[in-house]
Amino acid sequence: MPEVTFHGLDIGRVDPNDDLVERIVSTTGEEYALSDGDVIVITAKVVSFAEGRLIEADDVDVTERDRRVAEITGIDPREVAVIYEESDVLGAIPIAEVGEDLLLEHAVDPDVAQEALDDVPSMLVTERNGRLCTNAGVDWSNSPEGKMTLLPKDPDESARRLRGEIEARTGADVAVVLSDSEIAGPGSMDLAIGCSGIEAIDTNFGRADLYDQPKIGGVDLVADELTAGAALLFGQADERVPVVIVRGLEYEDGEGVPNSSGIVRRGLRKSIELTARLKAREWF
Amino acid sequence: MPEVTFHGLDIGRVDPNDDLVERIVSTTGEEYALSDGDVIVITAKVVSFAEGRLIEADDVDVTERDRRVAEITGIDPREVAVIYEESDVLGAIPIAEVGEDLLLEHAVDPDVAQEALDDVPSMLVTERNGRLCTNAGVDWSNSPEGKMTLLPKDPDESARRLRGEIEARTGADVAVVLSDSEIAGPGSMDLAIGCSGIEAIDTNFGRADLYDQPKIGGVDLVADELTAGAALLFGQADERVPVVIVRGLEYEDGEGVPNSSGIVRRGLRKSIELTARLKAREWF
């Protein structure tokens, strides 16, 4: 029977400009040697650290626009400036106002949670590298004091480079998926922001089902399923498991995550149009 | 180091009114005996079969409204009738128009895929059991000819019942999560529609991060991460692995998936308001 194992790696705290591949290879070498067909899911945060993608907040130039946006969103104006630099800003979500009840209900410490909500009452909806994400992935959390972490400049390219370095040092032909935590309905989940050596979307669309009928489903987001599963092991806060080795999965070769922001934006616009027609037809 | 194993179970094709728990227990008994702390992820489809939640399309009464909605969405009027019976209809997504290029690119057989797109050009956005989903989960695929499968009436209750029966027959204290395939961005992913014996959302919000700062993230959708990971093993079409045993996960006790449609709808409305204010502030 098919069996897939998710094995978390404690590679210790990664500090800016550490050699990430060396840390992964030495940790796996001792406890779980890499082999062909493994998928390595890595949180974008440690890849950013290793690539030196940190910015000193006090070095950021803030414009009048950044101040105006900061005022209505509650986001630090220096972060606003970086988000506009890193992405196209499409909109904003008032997280605290929408989800306060749910968030406080699921808080470890209500006071600390309230403090976090006061600190970050809203998030910007952004488009970066062809994907929709919040705050362009810019993050103060798990970052050294006074610094923000930016996403890798080109996450697919980072995945490709990491995959090449891992093969060069171990001989193992693996796939690499970079993940980042994103809002998904009533909470958050890790989704794929870059990959190499694996097809991000499977190819079952239109295959016959159990009863030999063509099936419309089956456009499985394999790379996102891998990051979501790996998130069961990632430490979201004070844990230190930013790397998960997935073993036993059959997958196809491929490069890059799909450029999805176009399809999502077009889907939203066309769905609003069809919904208006639907609602008119329901009663007239 | 943390390690979580996803083990797929081939329980054979489940036919209407089969004893699902007997099939699971006898299959696991031979190859992978259940033990305390296992999480059993089951596709809603086989739970619906076992509960006899199938409907003969020709027995459905179709109203004038159903015909009007069918006309603009391309959905079979009998399916429209069942969807309105099963849920509140909030809107519609013109899937074929939005995603045709992507879907045909990822098709196994372009002709069969085109046929599937012609058959189901749109989907209805519905609210059911406090969750948003498409077509109220009503599905012709993997169903006997001329029949539609409906979701379990109360998926949390089904999970609770299955969990109790499994414990009664094996003595193992497991958790049960029911999953269904849903649209997620540019493809589909399995999400949790019911659960028992596990907290669906984890409780890390506001915990201190690596640098002792409170963190706004960490509202992890654990149940959805489990179903997404299990989807790597589920056969979406002609495969027969509708059950996945997840072993090695530490989780908290809890009942039920969150009632998320309110928060998602409120989030959408409030995000549109804040986005309008944001766009006004960007330039004026």
**CATH structural fold name of the largest domain in chain A:** 60s Ribosomal Protein L30, Chain: A
What oligomerization state is this entry in? homodimer
Succession of helices and strands of chain A: EHEHEHHEHHEEEHEEHEH
Tell me, rounded to a whole number, the average pLDDT of chain A: 90
CATH superfamily of the largest domain in chain A: CofE-like
Count of spatially separate domains of chain A: 2
Helix content of chain A: 25-40%
Q: Summarize the largest interface: chains and residue counts.
A: A-B, 114 and 114 residues
Helical element count of chain A? 9
InterPro entries (chains A, B): F420-0_gamma-glut_ligase-dom
Domain Coenzyme F420:L-glutamate ligase-like (chains A, B): 9-248
Pfam family, one (chains A, B): F420_ligase
GO molecular function, one term (chains A, B): coenzyme F420-0:L-glutamate ligase activity
Please, could you describe this protein's structure?
The structure is a homodimer of 284-residue chains. In chain A, the strands form three sheets. A five-stranded mixed β-sheet of chain A has the order 1-10-2-8-9, sandwiched between helices. A three-stranded antiparallel β-sheet of chain A has the order 4-5-6, sandwiched between helices. In chain A, strand 8 (175-184) and strand 9 (187-196) form a beta hairpin. The first copy, chain A, is an alpha+beta fold. Chain A contains nine helices and ten strands. The first copy, chain A, has two domains: 1-50 and 152-259, CofE-like (60s Ribosomal Protein L30, Chain: A, 2-Layer Sandwich), CATH 3.30.1330; 54-150, Alpha-Beta Complex (CofE-like fold). In chain A, helix 3 crosses helix 4 and helix 5 (95-105) packs antiparallel against helix 6. Chain A is globular. At the A-B interface, strand 1, helix 3, strand 4, helix 5 and helix 6 of A face strand 1, helix 3, strand 4, helix 5 and helix 6 of B. Strand 1 (3-9) of chain A pairs antiparallel with strand 1 of chain B.
